[in-house]
# Entry
Amino acid sequence: MDVLHNLYTGFSVALTWPNLLSCTAGVLFGQMIGILPGIGAPTAIALLLPLTFSLDPTSAIIMFAGIYYGVAYGGTVTSILINVPGESSSVMTCVDGYAMAQRGRAGAALSISAIGSFAAGTVAIVLLMSFAPAMARFALRFGPAEYFGLGAMAFGLLTVFGSGSPFKIIISTVIGILISTVGMDLVSGMPRLTFGVPQLLGGIDFIVIICGLFGLAEVFNSIEEPEGGHLAQEQFKLRETFLTWHEWVESRWAIVRGGIIGFLVGLIPAGGITTASFLAYMAEKKASKHPETFGKGDIAGVAAPESANNAASISGFAPLLALGVPGSATTAVMLAGFMMWGIRPGPLLFTTKPDLVWGLIASMYVGNTILLVINMFLIPLFVAMLRIPYSILMGFIIVFASIGAYSVNNSMFEVWLMVGFGLLGYVMKKLKYPIVPLILAMVLGNLVEKSLRQALVLSAGSLDVFYTRPITVAFLLIALLAYCSPLIRMALARAGYGKDVINVESL
Amino acid sequence: MWYANIIAGAAVFLLGAATTAVSWKTLPYGGEFGPGPGFVPFWMGIVLMLCATPVIITDLRAKATAERLFRPETAKCLQVLALIVGVFLVLPILGFSVGLALVTGGGMRLMGRHGWLACGATVVGTAVCIHFLFGRWLGIPLPTGVVGW
# Structure
């Protein structure tokens, strides 16, 4: 009953005109971001953050959430039509979606993506309403030792879900932690790693780094490796979006399985929507009676990952809201937004800001409905956007990134820092050092260090605080297993078990 | 690419060494009631060195491949970087609106070989939008140049 009452409160917040407009703007913008190459949800939100200083925080967060799950819908369009994933979470959709388009069933593929995303997203919102408050009540038991363990676990899980060198993932994570230490130490008041530069005393702002690593670096990467593709189908008729009975039957359980997998993966810190879509695809292929049809235009191969990525984007809000721990780069940027408005996500958020939390949850119902409608009827408009040359887009990305960086402190120093981080991000990608661990570590680094120091202060320097508290022990054990996971995977590979990899770069 | 990987690994190792050394020399390791401000940077530097070592060893053992760090398309990136840096250096004179507008027009000309008319129209439109959207409506105090924008 509490949940229903809270949801009623949420709808009374979400259905006000400013918040409805914010939600609509967010999902439309997110859909466009998902379609356009070279710009993703973290970049878009980071570029918009400085511009929303004057907005009501609830409206701004509703808009950003709309961008996040709207992107999952939008990335599907390019995956199906030109075999180029608009977003990393739509990589698996390319496999069967483009094959369907080549057979003239692009409309059906887009339909099932929209329907699957809507169905799984709606169920995920319902589950979020139960899970998030329960997580928050559980997190009320957390002390500094538990938060340290949670942070260590989140860092460790980055090596579990990653491919490539685990050492490079750890290096990227550590660099993020080091960046978070730059500036004045809050406990002692001593400057750290500022090298006498007064502008660094306040630390390096998250917005500057995101604008550089995701904005400018992506511009350079996209210039060097332009994404292109041939449209499999340019003209659409409305009736082509209707599914046949056979396609409905083939896809219904894929939506259910994909939604469940997506929801569960999204709950894990560092889980990510890309991981969810990959796991859902692999699980659907294993569960299928005809796995040989996957990769050749099986509609279940489109329904499963699309349902999973939308469910994961919704459930990713649970650790963010209830624990204050972001599950992906996008929620990490949103955490920065929360802090910008002076709101601290965590277990107390549900009691101190119920309007914001439940307004956000209710707005997800509205946003998913809007997305279903526009994806069924406005696809030709979005197809037209694919024709915008990147040479025009990149200029605007640079404009937004530069103004975003400048507006942090109204100083050119931050703009030059952004250029530096842009070059760093460009080089890191070329040398296969993942960027997402750096971002997550930068956001969580202060919290983890503060928690560690607080825990040791409370225990008078004794380390037993880390092995006598059961929740902390559980988190630290998972972290240890996670860091050992590359060795476990090597041992399993030598024993002859298959190895599926997920690219942590595309979380 | 082989050389680039080795150099990157070495750079990470040196970064770790420098971080460890700087934090040990300039920051207190312990505090009155627990770790001090130098604790985390010290150990992160150690971790960097420990992780860079196997990366360097793996890269040294790897065979050189045909993949190159810098490709012909990298020249385009350098052109865009030169455009950005050049404009940013003269931003105090040009002002933000005009300067960033020149970046969009310049990018269109460099990357897309769009006509001068299209580039010029984009420059003018972008400058107007930046001035009114960011400078006036959102109230961001963007630096103005000799034009006053």
Summary: Residues 2-227+250-506 of chain A form one domain.
